[in-house]
TrEMBL record:
It comes from Cinclus mexicanus. This is Heparan sulfate 2-O-sulfotransferase 1. GO terms for cellular component: Golgi membrane. It holds the Pfam family Sulfotransfer_2. It comes from the Eukaryota. Gene3D superfamilies: P-loop containing nucleotide triphosphate hydrolases. Its main location: Golgi.
Length: 165
């Protein structure tokens, strides 16, 4: 228990330190001046994908259009596809999204939970979007997905796949 408690205290201390770094970059004087982006180029859209809501199709459209429309697409892959991040990972994520000028404008996608950038002192927050689907249609899609797989990784054996009969 003492090790877990110490780990939790350490994680919170590191997170507070990193949040202070973010706050210093976003002071009254504005963001850092090393690279300045136009307002329209300083945009990040985060598509926090909900499974079985046509998210793969929607993401493929983003990849198809990115070169023509001059934006970057980035897949956010969290540890073991766990959508919830630790406080330390949240701080790192906020830091990366706000300071990675080379990936702006950007469309970031992945199975992640909503993260309130304002609580980290960020003034220029990303835009969150999502696609939803009728719950019954989503369940039917999930059933066929588990039973027959998909076209993107046809040989992949999923844990919940079970008997195909």
């Amino acid at each position: 228990i003492e090790i877990l408690y110490f780990s939790s205290i350490t994680e919170r201390a590191i997170a507070r330190h990193e949040v202070r770094e973010i706050e210093q970059r976003h002071t009254v004087d504005g963001p850092r001046q090393d690279v300045t982006l136009d307002e329209e180029d300083d945009v990040v859209i985060i598509y926090n994908r909900v499974p079985k809501t046509a998210s793969t199709s929607f993401t493929n459209i983003a990849y198809d259009l990115c070169a023509k429309n001059k934006y970057h697409v980035l897949h956010i892959n969290t540890t073991k596809n766990n959508p919830v991040m630790s406080l330390q990972d949240q701080v790192r994520f906020v830091k990366n999204v706000t300071s990675w000028k080379e990936m702006k404008p950007g469309f970031y996608h992945g199975h992640i939970s909503y993260l309130d950038f304002a609580k980290f002192g960020v003034k220029k927050k990303p835009i969150y979007i999502n696609v939803i689907r009728d719950p019954i249609e989503r369940l039917v899609s999930y059933y066929y997905f588990l039973r027959f797989g998909d076209d993107y990784r046809p040989g992949l054996r999923r844990r919940k796949q079970g008997d195909k009969k």
